[in-house]
Batch of 3 targets.
Target 1
Amino acid sequence: MDFKLLKTLCQIHAPSGNEVAMKEFILNYVEVNASKWKTKPEVIFGDKFQDCVMLKFGTPRTAIFAHMDSIGFTVRYNDQLVAIGGPKAETGYKLVGEDSMGPIECELLEDDGNLYYKFPRGIDRGTELVFKCDFREDDEYIQSCYMDNRLGVFNALKVAETLEDGVIAFGCWEEHGGGAVPYLAKHMYEQWGVKQALISDITWVTEGVPHGEGVAISMRDRNIPRRSYIQKIIKIAEESGIDFQLEVEGAGSSDGRELQLSPYPFDWCFVGAPEDHVHSPDEKVHKHDIDCMIALYKVLMERL
Amino acid sequence: MDFKLLKTLCQIHAPSGNEVAMKEFILNYVEVNASKWKTKPEVIFGDKFQDCVMLKFGTPRTAIFAHMDSIGFTVRYNDQLVAIGGPKAETGYKLVGEDSMGPIECELLEDDGNLYYKFPRGIDRGTELVFKCDFREDDEYIQSCYMDNRLGVFNALKVAETLEDGVIAFGCWEEHGGGAVPYLAKHMYEQWGVKQALISDITWVTEGVPHGEGVAISMRDRNIPRRSYIQKIIKIAEESGIDFQLEVEGAGSSDGRELQLSPYPFDWCFVGAPEDHVHSPDEKVHKHDIDCMIALYKVLMERL
Amino acid sequence: MDFKLLKTLCQIHAPSGNEVAMKEFILNYVEVNASKWKTKPEVIFGDKFQDCVMLKFGTPRTAIFAHMDSIGFTVRYNDQLVAIGGPKAETGYKLVGEDSMGPIECELLEDDGNLYYKFPRGIDRGTELVFKCDFREDDEYIQSCYMDNRLGVFNALKVAETLEDGVIAFGCWEEHGGGAVPYLAKHMYEQWGVKQALISDITWVTEGVPHGEGVAISMRDRNIPRRSYIQKIIKIAEESGIDFQLEVEGAGSSDGRELQLSPYPFDWCFVGAPEDHVHSPDEKVHKHDIDCMIALYKVLMERL
């Protein structure tokens, strides 16, 4: 598989709350590529959806949620930083951004839980800094910042190529408490009757879910989805012959949480490749798990 | 009072996220018994309500929320367990469940906050285990796992016998962060204009709310309901002559939290018998408090 | 500026969940004063809005949210107190309230995190106590309990005098987890298409936001609003010539949180004067910051 698109996605500046660049990239990508897709989707965006984008294919039964935003840092006062989402923070990490005085490439400094930047000049209050992208690919692995969740977006765009019936929702704020999923869910449910969802996102390599053994189907994390829906998905996965792994966690969360708590009766399931070095500049995913993720999504969107 | 129905309810496997068995029991119970009730309710359920059930009697003004789900444990990797809700976890507790290899009765092992099962064979990943039911009844008390909230369900089914106008909503996920109340509230409010609620659930025996002195009316827990509604309920309770106790807590939560946070203007009040040994296999409730709970609900549903 | 109205507001008993007295004060104030305002608003309140009040001026594009409720304490059992919201609690603070036996003025007692009252007689279970108001004004500062958020309400009522198009929403429960904003947002969005909001509330004096240097525009707190909206507001503020300060925090929250999480696509921004001695009986705000707050709201409501 060609990962140029993924590399491009990983470099786009779009921390939670400022997903405009991702929105514009996706809108442009769809405009350029949708004519080659099996089904041309309706593209839904605009002020009523803030910076989100939805692609509606045919008569949708199931929605893919892929969040566009990333973790990062906001400049506070003096040289202080405040986290956006839950980034790993180690002294020496390279951060990039831009303020009124121009582009910034600086270094992160962690001291007893407090975060600072090292840069020759002061940076404007409120400036967002994100990890500098160092995209690495070998025969087996891809490693980069923001595999979470640009790989989830990549997956959705790959699935889009052959999708006949379904919705793909590119959302905002997932890394920082949410805010977009409820109104996306509202629209899908009220306009199209959609109440099944797949969360296209990246999970953790753990003792139970190693690299290279297939895409993870999460039976639960901090939240517990409806069991009958999970069982349906597992059954389809088993019949597909695609490698997958069952995940069971007590912590961690996703767009699924917001669907769970929304006033719409959504069934949801997190299905995604596992990564190592979570929320660091070095998120690492096995290529086989990416292949399985895309393959399983194609099957699920057909059969659910 | 005959507690056979309560005993049956306490034995039904329905941890948060998998309330199907409770749903089916209730649907069947209503089918068999509703003809003897004063008013035959409309039974509302199906995919738009996941595994929830609503009974609509006459022209409802007030809804009873009784959650069907219980706390429990999910099998993680190896012999590890992850909590469903907030169960008390002591080594030696008996747990039951079922996986692809058949029925399971095993033992809980708690070690420094980590949870494990003891069983001769490995248990399928994602299997749910719940407390084994040991239902005990004497002249004064009932003791069993899952009085919280099968007693709340029992109360609702007793109130159903004579209810003329009202809704009873049997909900899901209460023990594990919620997820059903918002869409149930939406339906009630939009379809029937209902915006008054009673939370039929079980609370704690404390220094201020002892066994045997009547049903507890909670003036607040972690959440604070609208005071004017609570005062209305207290006034009706005072006039009824039924034993009740006022509860004031800074912690604890219920379906009321989800009503409070929903985009519908619900007034809600937790009214329930207090129990000892909360969230353990030995939840203990005084029979007089159960009598008072049922009696007060009947009055409240008439007068609110 | 004359601060008599603010003084009156600071003395009104309206802890979270019991905002009736504030509601009635505002309804009466509007009835008496609206004839002198540039635009006479439609006054929206009643059971569908619990104890909230909305004023609709002309054709609204933007809503001001000003919460009416305050922090305080609930009497638990014996002489124990439970917090309403997050009040500062120091032994010796004067508290006032009323129960079935009459008015109460007592003293707070803090012992190792536990809270008690000192009063010659027992106080009814569930009674609410609030800080006794000691309103102090000098040339530069106002100091009193409940500047948060009676000053936010004061600001909204001042802005009302000349407002042509806009909504002012006086809400409930902000200090204690929320509950009103979602249905207020629902109404505004569905009925009037409003999806821009300003949070009229009081923030913290910090190393980055001192007294007397103008109203604070919060770029983020615990929640991160949409950046493009914040930038629009900053641009208008810059062009206005009114003193303002940019705030960046990782903690703290407001009505904005509930807008963020609601199923409506609201853009929101916290704009408010900073105070010292937060959540104590001695909240202190610089008069220049109050002037700037009112002035900036007038401009923003016109230009947004």
Target 2
Amino acid sequence: MQFHHHGYVSGDPRVLPAEGVGVDRPTELPDEVDVLIVGSGPAGMIAAAQLARFPGVTTRIIERRPGRLAIGQADGIQARSVETFQAFGFAGRITAEAYQISEMCFWKPDVEHPENIVRTARPLDDPAGVSEFPHLIVNQARVLDYFAEYAANAPARITPDYGLEFLGLEVAEVTGAGEALPEFPVTVTLRHTTDSPDPAGPREGSERTVRAKYVIGADGARSGVRESIGRKLTGASANHAWGVMDVLAVTDFPDIRLKCAIQSHTGGSILLIPREGGHLFRMYVDLGEVPEGGSAAVRATTIEQIIAKANEILTPYTLDVKDVAWHSVYEVGHRLTDKFDDVAHEHVGTRTPRVFITGDACHTHSAKAGQGMNVSMQDGWNIAWKLGHVLEGRASEALLDTYSAERQVIAQNLIDFDREWSTLMAAKPEDLKDPTELEDFYVKTAEFPAGFMTHYAPSLITGSADHQSLATGFPVGKRFRSAPVQRVADGTPQHLGHHATADGRWRIYVFADAAGGGSTGDTAAVDALGAWLTESPDSPVVAFTPADADLDSRFDVKVIYRRPHTEVDLATVPPVFLPRSGPFGLIDYEKVHALRSDAGVAGGDGLSEPGVDIFAERGIDPAGAIVVVRPDHYVAQVLPLDGTAELAAFFARLMLPQREAVAAY
Amino acid sequence: MQFHHHGYVSGDPRVLPAEGVGVDRPTELPDEVDVLIVGSGPAGMIAAAQLARFPGVTTRIIERRPGRLAIGQADGIQARSVETFQAFGFAGRITAEAYQISEMCFWKPDVEHPENIVRTARPLDDPAGVSEFPHLIVNQARVLDYFAEYAANAPARITPDYGLEFLGLEVAEVTGAGEALPEFPVTVTLRHTTDSPDPAGPREGSERTVRAKYVIGADGARSGVRESIGRKLTGASANHAWGVMDVLAVTDFPDIRLKCAIQSHTGGSILLIPREGGHLFRMYVDLGEVPEGGSAAVRATTIEQIIAKANEILTPYTLDVKDVAWHSVYEVGHRLTDKFDDVAHEHVGTRTPRVFITGDACHTHSAKAGQGMNVSMQDGWNIAWKLGHVLEGRASEALLDTYSAERQVIAQNLIDFDREWSTLMAAKPEDLKDPTELEDFYVKTAEFPAGFMTHYAPSLITGSADHQSLATGFPVGKRFRSAPVQRVADGTPQHLGHHATADGRWRIYVFADAAGGGSTGDTAAVDALGAWLTESPDSPVVAFTPADADLDSRFDVKVIYRRPHTEVDLATVPPVFLPRSGPFGLIDYEKVHALRSDAGVAGGDGLSEPGVDIFAERGIDPAGAIVVVRPDHYVAQVLPLDGTAELAAFFARLMLPQREAVAAY
Ligand SMILES: Cc1cc2nc3c(=O)[nH]c(=O)nc-3n(C[C@H](O)[C@H](O)[C@H](O)COP(=O)(O)OP(=O)(O)OC[C@H]3O[C@@H](n4cnc5c(N)ncnc54)[C@H](O)[C@@H]3O)c2cc1C
Ligand SMILES: Cc1cc2nc3c(=O)[nH]c(=O)nc-3n(C[C@H](O)[C@H](O)[C@H](O)COP(=O)(O)OP(=O)(O)OC[C@H]3O[C@@H](n4cnc5c(N)ncnc54)[C@H](O)[C@@H]3O)c2cc1C
């Protein structure tokens, strides 16, 4: 954590100084905003948290509920989401209070006594160690709390406007030639809800309009924003229903603290998810497919019926439920919309999208693969940094088209995966091709539910894989996977990726070549690249950083030397890796790294992996490599150390020059 | 983290439900309190935090300052203190914002150009890996903030009463035979200070009295509490002075982010301590011994003089100070009082101590070994749990005599160590026996400054070492050193010791014997001990747990099986290790552990140590062992698995039976 560089910070360094629109932010929702987010679920809250790092942008988030979510809904947190929480500074805290999945148990009818279930398999949840972060279970409400805290403590100081309901919106269109679009082209109609804790006194039912430059619809499966732009969820007509209950109970079922898929001989099935705190657990009890029009009947299922059914499936074990924290009949189908914004396919490139939909508003699917909250968060993060960049004048509006293009594919993959997984889980044992088909699928596809299958195709912001062989462990289009290094200035073990936060910056990691790696070897290639980065007018760092801003304000440029930290002489490191910033022009010493030392230093941050060689772990070529990483931590490009022309070209097609016109705020 | 067992907790689980005196705690300091703590430095705040876990006890903490400490004072946090923070739930958070010491550099005059300094050594700070926690540097103010948060969120809901100054106290004495001591024998006089943020309006200068059962003097080096009980700091008459500055600066000194001891050819010396946030650092610039009466002259040293002196010592490097966050002339001698309570040596056993002094009030020493805040916290923790136990009727008053007996020895050791270390650091190179004497001492004594040399002698609460051979890695009288295990119920990797919090409970760890360790071996010895613990009237768990309280409310009893977790059948584990608690009688599944599995599961909590065998790491005999641990996490006793008589005897001499009379609250 870096702070004090603008002067001493006496209190919690997680509370960043208010800046821009965060200074004296009005309590009351203004009439004109840059971004209006509708809905404070996972998609909306992460978007607010990310935009809170862009204090040049006025962002408001409205929510129909009178206050925070208290209970219920999703609880599965993929390792990819925990990586994301790291970027928002709360991975450690939420891990400490969450349930951590280590194994998954499969229970089936006993072959000899099919009325009884027996454990048939116990695979590890993450046998390959796909992330240094764990797979967690914790209530959605707590995830939202942490994002809310982040948004409130970030420079733009965003807090949700509760008790405001979205009714509809209209996007202004340019009808005549030469006519200009209004500055705030989206007009949104809202209504104060009855139970709103309105600081301005009772205004229940009263309507108002707000004009916005952009709207993010994060208003869930029944999205009004989606409807207002004429998009539809399409897909299988049948829903699948589950009785969901979060309960405190006494049981003799031995795996009650393990994630279990349980199938009984009657075809009943339970997905058991232990929950945070050591006592609570969730059960999804299968209620089967809901025929069209059959919703009401299924929804009438009582908690007593759910508990009775669970007991039946668990035979010979019993479940004595003592307290029901939450229960619901969760009914959902596999549905998806074809595009996640308001621009028709045929108008892409000629019209700028103004309204985006995210999360459940664009895709719904079963809860069985534990995906809903996770994918929704990645949607929200994806659109939020892009809006920040466009609105602060860093990037061209074309960036906004990449949101739907990237995320719609991911949603389609998710739905395909989930359909296969749900079908397998609902199948009777005798219907499976192979008795271990379910377990095999779980193990084979482990990377998917962990959230790491996302692989963006080449686009404006994802380069080609031409130079992939220079860094095979950083696949272009996939998330940047951290690895251990040693920081030179203080000799501490670090996870390279954990230094990256959700600060909206692009990152350029420079991995030294082997010539510069020996203890006495020179570092000519790194030095030349370092000089180019600060001196060439073509360098993205020069071209796209405003002249009056800190050198590291738009690009976070790091170097990893291929030698032990004691053999790196800071005096010879190019200044781009030791940038000076803030009112005192202090040197930032946290961008220069070296090989992980063999000596262990107690960490508390998963750092007790002495001796790991990041160059070997991530397949860095002896020639070295430049790895460009997006603000949402996906690898955008891999280039050779002398690939300055390609590096310049990559950013030139996307970013707006800052050196002639000074930044907007 | 365990919660939800009294029903669903929707918000932050770190906020424990208010209980006892924490429900409707009065804002105004009452006239009668059980414990009055004077001073909210590290000693006082940890005492308040610990006592906040005893909601049967009315504890108040008064502080002369108008509010929280903002800046300055100590910053060195030993690994032992970070272990302590773990018990109070904030090790992870404070580590994330702190500077972490990995190495210490030694700089000396260059042999050929003595006007220039050169680096002569760079030893690791903790080469032996004495703890899984790191050695940190962070401002004392933040440590106090975290303890304050803990105290405010714990059941007794303690917050400091700011703006109240201690003036004096009197302890009532029994003069006539048969006369009873008043219930609140200590009368304390206080004054409202001028700048107090008093909720009751301006009362500056007005005095009041409070009566207390016990007083903890945590009021620092000039302690009025110490004076009021007639104790004196004695020791060398001369103070040593240092110019201390916390600054933001630009420098070409390459080790500016490393802890350094720097000696120049003129005899000047600097102790450089990098600080949290990546930019700030502290320098202690030696100002030499202060002759008696010379204080005023030394204190007149200006910040400009300190900076000039630092530049002189750092030659050929320069230091361009941009901002001074804090500076002070810190002047201190090696002083100690002979006893830490109000009972004269000759009255121990006949009078109960009523007033205790802690921290700087009883011992002062240089800042060079970074001990002040650390030792003070252990003082405060030591007395606080003891007062909690006595006041809640768990233990006899004799427990209180152990405070001074234990801590005075520790302070004496500290002062001896610090004197040696300061002398070495202040010595001119040519005066050293051996040119590497300083570095050698640093490496040789590493366990001391890390806080792990504390080794309590046998007493009422520290048993004999007769059975030490059964668990050589848990020395009786030293802190319980955690090691990795695998939790049986959920298969997750855990650090055994991290489950222990500052909840005031004694802990009984049962390490299985090798007979019960094979994959099919029986567990006769563990089963017999388990049965005795819940069934025998001699069992401390039976005798000293109130009949209407949860089985695990006074003793936290855990088992570690000597086999993989997949080979432990929970159905056969004795109920004392799976106790039922709370209104729903839910089973606690977090006390049953097994050998650490070979398979790594991502942790984020220093848990990536697959395959570590706790039995081998901690030298557990094939016959198994019982390890008894105090509420402040020191090993109290090691016993054989059939040592039930000794176990019963150990607690019988200390604790008060609870089964006839129900607990006090
Ligand atoms: C009742 C319920 C139960 C669920 N149970 C499970 C489960 O058991 N397991 C699982 O994995 N997933 C479950 N889900 C799905 C999971 O919660 C979602 O996948 C996830 O929350 C998607 O995030 P989101 O931000 O897209 O939408 P949501 O979390 O649905 O958030 C949408 C937000 O928008 C607000 N909103 C909606 N309309 C308006 C409006 N017109 N004006 C203003 N605000 C509006 C809503 O109040 C809500 O806060 C459940 C969802 C719901 C609603
Ligand atoms: C100015 C200063 C600078 C220091 N600098 C360093 C340093 O550079 N490095 C280092 O390692 N250590 C330093 N120390 C020492 C270190 O801070 C102590 O070792 C540590 O704080 C001891 O903790 P404590 O709780 O015993 O006492 P303290 O932290 O001193 O706390 C005592 C508290 O009691 C309060 N108090 C005092 N008298 C009264 C009264 N009559 N009524 C009510 N409240 C009262 C004080 O306001 C204070 O909050 C410094 C101490 C001071 C005071």
Target 3
Amino acid sequence: MNSSEKIYSGKTKDLYALANGNILLVFKDDVTGADGIIDPGANTVIGQVEGKGRKSLGMTDYFFKRLHSAGVPTHLVNLDLEKGTMEVRRGEPLGKDINGAGGFEFVCRTRPWGSFIRRYQQYIRDAEQKLDYLVEITVKDDERGDPLINDDSIVTLGLLTPAHLEQAKQLTRHVCRIVEADLSEKGLTLIDMKIEIGLVDGEIVVIDEISADAMRVMDDAGKVLEHSTVYERLVG
Amino acid sequence: MNSSEKIYSGKTKDLYALANGNILLVFKDDVTGADGIIDPGANTVIGQVEGKGRKSLGMTDYFFKRLHSAGVPTHLVNLDLEKGTMEVRRGEPLGKDINGAGGFEFVCRTRPWGSFIRRYQQYIRDAEQKLDYLVEITVKDDERGDPLINDDSIVTLGLLTPAHLEQAKQLTRHVCRIVEADLSEKGLTLIDMKIEIGLVDGEIVVIDEISADAMRVMDDAGKVLEHSTVYERLVG
């Protein structure tokens, strides 16, 4: 990495610009949480867990292979599990503002859970209710608690064209179905997941990572699994 | 009102069931706010302002007449400014849950202001930016701070059909344009407003009230006006 320049240091990854124009993602062992409890949805790094970065990368390798098999494009060029790095095409993450802050997270839900229940409690008849690949889009903004943004705001603020927005939502549902089907083969149930999407070489593609951190998974007894358990069951 | 039964006591209105099947809305002088400061967006009644109920009713009378002239349907049957009451057709407020709680508020914005700026600050280039009748839908839920809900959630939770949702959003924009044009004739600028919508006799119509409380209005010097000033300028 002597010839590369560090361009960003995130909560779980560092980014380097490569001489060939691509980006190198270096996965870190940092974990986020609050009050000493690990929570991938939280915005504060509370410590490190050895091997965590490689596990995230291993999961991403696992799911990106399945996406590619299904013809779903990602930004991946190549991936080095030993080094804990991933080379990706340079692109424009959807929802990034002019200063490079922000960015959208595309959430897909198959049943009500977590913040969705907290927000819409009165409308939820029972926890077993199916949500038919419901998509929500949130803005990455630690200070404001990652606010939800609706389609009208995204288009009116000029953040996405209606066509790209529709493509991104369809891509989110497509990825969710692929991940759900794969988990199902292993006796696991996907509750919800989130991905990031970018415009790479003019195409709407999956970017960043797909790790156990970015999904809630239940076993056949209805128990929500630890991320490390999901990792063991899938990647071993 | 001897022959009528009180069916609901709200923050600013009481509701009575009339013998003819309609509902009587009785406007109250209660005002909401926090820390002693009146804020119509707040959820706690902090006191009373004499004549406030009649002013809200006067504004509603003013705007409902304009909506009716423009062919926009409302639930209004008749209105008594002296008594501070309004008789309306019985209907189903959109977004009410099975227990009668909740209900949607349809917000229409012509420029960024208030919570919209707080949520999407990083995307807003300047305060003069036009928002082209952007619609947001929120759930009336005091405890949860009236959370935003997106179209996908509304449809997936079975709260509205896609057709009714589209009609309701179009109605919201239509009402906003009518109110904006009327204010403009008086040298005033509409920033944003909110309405409630119901399904009455199988039709999507404006319900509840349209008062100064439910809109932000600027004068030609760019100053946001007190609600009582808006009332004086329009109804006198």
